Amino acid sequence: MGFLSASVAVTRYAVNGEIAEPFMETVAKGLSANVIQEINGDPQKRSVGWAPFDKPYTPDFSAASFVVADTVVFCLRIDKKSLPAGTVKKMYAAEVDRRLRESGREFLSKDEKKEVKEHVENVLLIRMPSVPAVYDVLWKYGEQRLYFFSTQKAAKDELETLFYKSFGAPLIPLFPFTTAETSCGLTDAQIDSLAQAAPSTFATE
After folding, report:
1. How far apart are the C-alpha atoms of 69 and 89, rounded to whole Å?
2. How far is the C-alpha of 66 from the C-alpha of 44, rounded, in Å?
């Protein structure tokens, strides 16, 4: 789901800390160094990385513009492969039978069975195309705010981890408490009081 969709789900973040200068050079290096790696034809089950906003399936930042006015625009892309359990079971049984016939034995050892399963999974993963999920990211760097167009916990966790790895600044999810803490100039005592505040009930019985 992206910000150009008819309906969107958005998670807001504060970018906590300063990005090393020169800013745009640091951003460009962070995006390029952590661009999504293709796993088609590879036994890997998943890949996580950045992709250009306008061409998320052609992940090359050297030929892509990622700045619009005062906003850095790009995507988080997560590619996954999920092996059907039935297919793995079928191919595993066939491979075990083949090895028993060729060896003339009645049983395989525990380690041999493990090796067969890993072999079957690797063969299937190499053949299987990955399924990509793309999430838009808008980074208003002048305001130190970032908008991530997903509310899925797994996707948010990947974003927070990769953003820190790429740019050296943690992301703070914004909800009422953290918004007050980061935006209202509160003293330490006021922040402590806010943390201890209990919700009020306005409905009457």
Report:
1. 53
2. 28
Cβ(5)–Cβ(161) below 8 Å: no
> 195 pLDDT exceeds 80?
no
What secondary structure letter does DSSP report for 40?
Answer: T
**Mean pLDDT score, 92-113:** 95
For the chain, what is the mean pLDDT? 89
One-letter amino acid identity for 69? Answer: A
- β-partners of residue 171 are 15
State how beta strands 145-148 and 11-15 pair.
antiparallel
What confidence tier does 14 reach under pLDDT thresholds 50, 70, 90? very high
Q: Are 171 and 155 in contact (CB under 8 A)?
A: no
Three-state SS at 147: strand
Structure pTM? 0.81
